[in-house]
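User: Here's a chain of 192 residues. Predict its fold as tokens.
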Amino acid sequence: MKQTWIQSQLDKVTKYLVSCSKQNYTPYQITMAIIFGSTFELVVIPIFLVVISKWLDYIFTLGKLFPSHRETTPAALAFCLGLTWMFWSIFTQHAQGNGTPLPLVPTKSLLVTGPYKYTRNPMVFGAIFWLLGWAFLANSPAALLSVGIFIMILVIYIKLIEEKELEARFGRDYMIYKEQTPFIFPRLIIHR
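Assistant: Prediction complete.
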């Protein structure tokens, strides 16, 4: 079966990421990757989301998600849930996996404990709520829609690249883990 151009490009990206996992990184490189990745996810993406969404709300006269001054409670709840999962994931990746969430400086081992016991993608789970918190705080329908689009892009990346890269690196162990652990939304009771 002939491979399409897109498939061949995805394979190249996957192979490159697998090669990144074989490199040894200094503590400085790991720290910088954590700072860069965290800043991008915690600051850059939310600022972009809020600014663009407020502009779209204005252009399309979309109104507000909540009545005035009612957005802070759902925003605070979403922020707390999102940050808890994101920081727990980052800590676990660094402490147990000797790596970072940044695909160019990945973990050295397959993580199946901590937040990874409940979901294969705890960072994404946390990011959903972190970004929802910003959409709620901005009180913006366009921001809520933007969160959905952003999550769809993340899911496509995970399915087309990250899962293939993890399968190439960890083989059968990853496949068993993948069968037993939910994709994004955690199962509350784990039977193992």
